[in-house]
Design goal:
This protein is mainly alpha-helical. The protein is built from five helices and no strands.
């Protein structure tokens, strides 16, 4: 038994005119559907990230109040985890000799310059 041809994937996905199984079948081989799916996921991720960034001041305020409250330990653990200091504190890293630091800075600058030139040409 032959199935009728499916509507174009992005149109069907947008309209919600397909079943989950059909969506799964299209997801892998259909490049147009994959592109539309990735665009939508990126848009959602961008919106969620923007919302989370807007909540940072509130979160920091809540942590500050909790640190000043009766049980500061849970808030302190959250702060330490957020900055990567919970558990083992890594040893400081970086160049300790001036000449090494200067050479590393020059190398970073040349990489940035090369990257910016490639960005303009490409």
């Amino acid at each position: 038994m032959t199935r009728p041809p499916a509507p174009p994937a992005p149109i069907a996905a947008t309209a919600g005119a397909v079943t989950r199984q059909t969506g799964r079948e299209w997801r892998t081989p259909h490049a147009g559907f994959q592109a539309a799916l990735h665009r939508r996921r990126q848009a959602l991720e961008h919106a969620m990230t923007k919302t989370l960034r807007g909540l940072r001041p509130k979160a920091l305020g809540a942590l500050t109040r909790a640190l000043d409250g009766e049980t500061p330990l849970p808030a302190a653990v959250h702060v330490l985890r957020a900055v990567g200091w919970y558990g083992a504190v890594p040893a400081p890293q970086g160049r300790i000799e001036r000449e090494d630091a200067v050479a590393a800075a020059r190398q970073r600058d040349s990489h940035r310059l090369l990257a910016s030139r490639q960005g303009l040409e490409g």
